[in-house]
UniProtKB/TrEMBL annotation:
It is found in: Cell membrane; Membrane. InterPro entries: TM_pro_TauE-like, TSUP/Inactive_protease-like. Its main location: membrane. Keywords: Cell membrane, Membrane, Transmembrane, Transmembrane helix. It comes from the Bacteria. This is Probable membrane transporter protein. It is a multi-pass membrane protein. One of its GO terms (cellular component) is plasma membrane. Pfam families: TauE (PF01925). Belongs to the 4-toluene sulfonate uptake permease (TSUP) (TC 2.A.102) family. The chain crosses the membrane at residues 29-52, 58-82, 94-116, 131-149, 169-202, 236-258, 264-282.
Length: 291
């Protein structure tokens, strides 16, 4: 005698499995599409790599958050490296400035991750430390975005900086501040590097993007080497596909950016930075309300 109830249960289980498999495939496809978008944004405005890559890896590709930060370093580092080489060929990278900026930032990130972050109290002014740090980061992003949207008068546009005239103390001070913030929030800091290069050192938007990509490439690849030495296991098929798409997006972003005037690029950067800053602020305030 046929047990119809058993067959119905088996059929329902099969449908559930197929539904989950379809959903997983859909999330995977969407994740890879977003990888292309991340590369495009990074190529066009020189920022947004880590802050977009980690959520894509976690929420769409099912990578654990701690592992996703290690993956992000390789993805963002290799993508930024291609971008920096492309901008270098166009003479839109201040290499000495990028190297001098990177060294204090790397040391500060290391010091922050290993000494400052573990010593922070769980509550800062009655706010959980993770939320407090992210709110500070969001506020700085809103300030940076607002600065980039601020109109520039012709008289305020300076000549390209001469390396001998650069205030290296100011450059290293900016580097330490951004390295501190990057170490606290685990993001690359491109949102703050570009406005700093423009406001304090007089770089044009495209020069700032090229120099920022070089700084991000140096910092991310150095960070990835640390994770590799520490023995982090890498899913190379997933990483290879993701990186190929971000590299494609990077070239598209550079192509689009090259056709835009500096003023329009500043607007794109400013709007994108403000949007991400507002979203982070909303998320953190929401988590505080439910805390």
């Amino acid at each position: 005698m046929v047990d119809f109830r058993y067959e119905a249960e088996q059929s329902n289980e099969l449908r559930c499995v197929l539904k989950l498999a379809r959903r997983k495939n859909q999330m995977l496809i969407l994740g890879y599409i977003l990888a292309l978008f991340m590369g495009l944004i990074l190529g066009m405005i020189g920022a947004g790599g880590a802050i977009l890559t980690v959520p894509i890896l976690v929420y769409f590709l099912g990578v654990m958050p701690v592992v996703a930060t290690a993956y992000s370093l390789l993805i963002v580092g290799s993508t930024a490296l291609l971008g920096s080489i492309t901008y270098w060929k166009k003479k839109q990278v201040y290499l000495a400035m990028a190297v001098i900026f990177s060294i204090p930032a790397l040391l500060t990130v290391f010091f922050t991750r290993f000494y400052i972050v573990p010593s922070l109290p769980e509550l800062i002014v009655n706010i959980p430390k993770n939320s407090f740090v992210m709110i500070i980061f969001a506020v700085l992003m809103l300030i940076a975005g607002g600065f980039m949207l601020k109109p520039i008068s012709v008289s305020s546009i300076s000549e390209p900086p001469v390396l001998k005239c650069i205030d290296y103390f100011k450059l290293m001070l900016c580097s330490i501040c951004i390295g501190l913030l990057s170490g606290l929030v685990g993001a690359g800091g491109g949102f703050l590097i570009i406005p700093s290069l423009i406001a304090f050192f007089g770089l044009g938007m495209k020069d700032a993007i090229g120099t920022s990509l070089t700084i991000i490439a140096i910092n991310s690849i150095a960070g990835f080497q640390g994770d590799r030495i520490a023995g982090t296991a890498f899913n190379w098929p997933l990483l290879t596909g993701f990186i190929l798409l971000t590299l494609t997006g990077m070239m598209l972003g550079i192509l689009i950016g090259s056709k835009l005037h500096d003023k329009k690029l500043r607007v794109v950067f400013g709007l994108f930075t403000l949007t991400v800053g507002v979203l982070i602020m909303i998320k953190e305030i929401g988590s505080l309300i439910s805390y």
